[in-house]
């Protein structure tokens, strides 16, 4: 015990020394940016490479359009739009075309909080209940959540409140409903311990900005950040009346509806690549916050239990995904970054403070935005000989015997989106990695154990195991550094006396889906015979394990997993209703079949009307204004949604489900023709 305690003290002393050095370094880096006389740089090769990669993403990966910019010491050295922002209007993307920047919005929310700290209206380490006394949860630990914990993802909120998070028109009641949801839920663990990416943290921070400043979040950002940074094309949501926005197009060429992200502080800002770069320059020049706040903003800030050893692969700052991208850090170049993604957009912002360079890129549609942005930054480094890679003599590890101490780590692991099974093969000295899907564990790969003490993956990563904080953890590390992340937590069998039948083998459809909600949620629940006392919840093919409090109520058991939620089952008029966040879902076993010429009218309770289709055929409906029809295939994947489809008629498979969404009294007519 004394030896362990001594080690802990040595580690803590080392952390303090490193932390202090980091603070000094960041002050020197940012305070010196505006005074540096930069050497002229070359960008010809970088621009050519960027154009090629972006067009490849549009032609091969399915992106609809893109915008990119680079600003060096206040000078726009590159800005360009790609493809059509609006095909119907014949409008091309320009440097002024707005895109949703998704989670890059968090950078601005954190900046607003830090400005309010600078003004003395907030303190980072004060509990949030001091500023928002109406905030409450059924978990008493909520009183320990501080302002800082919101910005470094350690508040232990469930993850993402998805009810009307992404919609086809703004929902002004989103934050009010979010607070009401929090009041009825618990935390995933102790606040301040583990950094797990959390959208809810920044939704809460948005509310805090409004409460303390006395302004709407949109007005606060416009006055205190966008104007100061010269960001003339940035706003919460798209600018009112603006037609110059990048539309996302579906694979069939139809336009997706305009996307509104109602958690403005988490992902609801619209901007341009050039404006994002302008923000980086304004930050370098001290226009946004003072040096003390910049140091807080851009220093590593993560919970002590985020990783059992080494450093987190995602070295969170306040609002930033990383305050030093590992690949560039190995070359002696500090790069601060934030990524964003939504169903329609993908974004990346990089700042190189020592070089006073900002790089931003945003796509409408699917694209590897971080990969393209990394290549742009690497090209800038190479073209201008900015970085140096230290040559490290290193013996190649070889396959060796798995130590006996690792064998007890075999078992079932969970994270926020997968259930994994780890097995060890002593004859091959390898780990067998399996994932649970559709009732069974399926092998994903077999990975050798090497003499450096890790199982090696074929994609530049290696895997280790650790027992820390009372948990057995599955940890993925970078191949060339000690940066890593917890990928799973071992789950031990629970109480076999707990009844699981209410959840076992059930499928669920929404009964209160709104007409504007982009998340047409449907789900499945089930049990693993290997894990008594637990159930799993499936949505969008993500499997999440939950413990059971009783036969009807789940509890979150994965403090390292993101985007979790508690669920419970009650009965209404003899039917089982599953409540997840504010969604209410009915058992598909209770859904009746659609009858020919059946009148479909929304009842006085406003709940959706659910029906089953017994035969293959085609379906069309006359939908009242403000109404919606969603069709799920037999596996509960949305196959048709009237708010995203331009077609009125669609083919349907036997066993599909229909959801009619509308206001009380709304009537739907339909034509369901069976396949001959």
Notes on the structure:
The longest helix has 30 residues, at 2-31. α1 packs across α10 (291-298), α3 packs parallel to α6 (199-213) and α3 (105-118) packs across α7 (217-229). Strands 10, 14, 15, 16, 17, 18, 19, 20 and 21 form a nine-stranded mixed beta sheet that branches. Helices cover 22% and strands 28% of the residues. The protein has four domains: 13-383, Beta-lactamase, CATH 3.40.710.10; 404-490; 506-590, Lipocalin (Beta Barrel); 600-674. By secondary structure, it is α+β, with helices and mostly antiparallel strands. It has twelve helices and 37 strands. The chain is globular and about 75 Å long.
Quick tags:
676 residues; Beta-lactamase; 37 strands; globular
Q: Which consecutive residue ranges, at least 5 long each, have pLDDT under 50?
A: 1-29, 31-37
For this structure, what is the CATH class of the largest domain?
Answer: Alpha Beta
- Average predicted confidence as pLDDT: 92
Q: Give the second-level CATH assignment, the architecture of the largest domain.
A: 3-Layer(aba) Sandwich
At CATH level 3, the topology of the largest domain is Beta-lactamase
Number of domains: 4
Task: Specify the number of helices.
Answer: 12
Fourth-tier CATH superfamily name of the largest domain: DD-peptidase/beta-lactamase superfamily
Question: What is the topological layout?
Answer:
Layout: H1 2-31, H2 44-60, E1 65-72, E2 75-82, E3 84-86, E4 91-92, E5 99-100, H3 105-118, H4 147-151, E6 166-167, H5 174-183, H6 199-213, H7 217-229, E7 235-236, E8 260-261, H8 264-267, E9 269-271, H9 273-284, H10 291-298, E10 311-312, H11 326-329, E11 336-341, E12 345-352, E13 357-364, H12 369-383, E14 411-414, E15 419-425, E16 430-437, E17 440-448, E18 455-456, E19 461-468, E20 471-478, E21 483-490, E22 506-510, E23 523-526, E24 534-539, E25 542-550, E26 553-555, E27 567-572, E28 575-580, E29 583-587, E30 600-601, E31 609-612, E32 617-622, E33 628-632, E34 638-641, E35 649-652, E36 657-661, E37 667-674
Parallel strand pairs: 10-21
Antiparallel strand pairs: 1-2, 1-13, 3-4, 5-9, 6-8, 7-9, 11-12, 12-13, 14-15, 14-21, 15-16, 16-17, 18-19, 19-20, 20-21, 22-23, 22-29, 23-24, 24-25, 25-26, 27-28, 28-29, 30-37, 31-36, 32-35, 32-37, 33-34, 33-36
């Amino acid at each position: 015990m004394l030896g362990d305690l001594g080690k802990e003290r040595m580690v803590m002393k080392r952390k303090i020394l490193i932390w202090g050095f980091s603070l000094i370094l960041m002050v020197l880096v940012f305070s010196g940016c505006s005074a540096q006389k930069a050497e002229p740089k070359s960008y010809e090769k970088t621009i050519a490479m960027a154009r090629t990669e972006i067009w490849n993403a549009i032609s091969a990966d399915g992106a609809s359009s893109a915008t990119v910019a680079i600003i060096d010491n206040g000078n726009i050295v590159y800005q360009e739009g790609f493809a059509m922002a609006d095909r119907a209007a014949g409008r091309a993307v320009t440097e002024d075309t707005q895109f949703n920047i998704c989670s890059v919005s968090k950078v601005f929310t954190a900046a607003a909080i830090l400005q309010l700290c600078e003004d003395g209206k907030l303190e980072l380490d004060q509990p949030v209940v001091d500023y928002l006394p109406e905030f409450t949860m059924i978990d008493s630990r909520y009183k320990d959540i501080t302002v800082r914990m919101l910005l470094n993802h350690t508040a232990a909120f469930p993850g993402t409140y998805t009810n009307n998070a992404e919609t086809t028109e703004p929902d002004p009641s989103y934050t009010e409903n979010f607070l009401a949801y929090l009041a009825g839920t618990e935390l995933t663990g102790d606040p301040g311990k583990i950094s797990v990416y959390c959208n809810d943290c920044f939704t809460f921070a948005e509310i805090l900005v409004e409460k303390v400043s006395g302004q709407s979040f949109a007005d606060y950002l416009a006055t205190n950040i966008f104007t100061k940074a010269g960001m003339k094309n940035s706003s919460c949501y798209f600018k009112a009346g603006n037609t110059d926005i990048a539309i996302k197009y579906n694979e069939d060429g139809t336009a997706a509806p305009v996307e509104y992200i109602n958690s403005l502080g988490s992902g609801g800002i619209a901007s341009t690549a050039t404006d994002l770069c302008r923000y980086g320059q304004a930050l370098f020049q001290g226009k946004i916050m003072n040096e003390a706040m910049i140091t807080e903003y851009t220093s590593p800030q993560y919970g002590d239990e985020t990783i059992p050893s080494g450093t987190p692969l995602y070295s969170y700052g306040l609002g930033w995904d990383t305050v030093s991208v590992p690949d560039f850090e190995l070359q002696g170049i500090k790069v601060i970054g934030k990524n964003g993604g939504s169903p329609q957009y993908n974004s990346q912002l990089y700042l190189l403070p020592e070089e006073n360079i900002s790089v931003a890129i945003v796509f409408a549609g699917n694209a590897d935005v971080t990969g393209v942005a990394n290549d742009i930054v690497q090209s800038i480094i190479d073209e201008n000989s900015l970085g140096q890679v230290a040559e490290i003599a290193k013996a190649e590890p070889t396959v060796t015997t798995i130590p006996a101490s690792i064998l007890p780590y075999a078992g079932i692991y969970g994270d926020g989106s997968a259930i994994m099974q780890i097995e060890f093969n002593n004859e091959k000295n390898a780990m067998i990695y399996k994932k649970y899907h559709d009732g069974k564990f399926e092998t994903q790969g077999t990975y050798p154990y090497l003499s450096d003490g890790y199982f090696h993956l074929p994609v530049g990563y290696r895997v280790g195991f650790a027992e820390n904080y009372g948990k057995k953890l599955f940890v993925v590390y970078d191949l060339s550094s000690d940066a890593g992340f917890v990928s799973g937590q071992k789950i031990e069998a629970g109480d076999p006396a707990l009844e699981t039948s209410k959840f076992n083998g059930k499928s669920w459809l929404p009964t209160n889906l709104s007409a504007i909600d982009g998340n047409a949620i449907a789900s499945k629940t089930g049990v693993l015979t290997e894990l008594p006392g637990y159930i799993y919840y499936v949505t969008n093919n993500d499997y999440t394990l939950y413990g059971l409090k009783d036969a009807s109520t789940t509890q979150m058991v994965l403090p390292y997993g993101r985007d979790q939620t508690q669920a419970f089952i009650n009965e209404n008029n003899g039917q089982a209703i599953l409540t997840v966040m504010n969604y209410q879902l009915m058992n598909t076993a209770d859904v009746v079949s659609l009858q020919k010429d059946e009148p479909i009218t929304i009842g006085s309770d406003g709940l959706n009307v659910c029906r089953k289709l017994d035969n293959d055929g085609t379906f069309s409906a006359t939908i009242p204004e403000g109404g919606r029809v969603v069709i799920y295939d037999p596996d509960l994947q949305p196959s048709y949604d009237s708010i995203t489809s331009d077609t009125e008629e669609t083919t349907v498979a036997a066993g599909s489900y229909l959801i009619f969404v509308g206001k009380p009294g709304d009537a739907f007519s339909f034509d369901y023709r069976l396949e001959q």
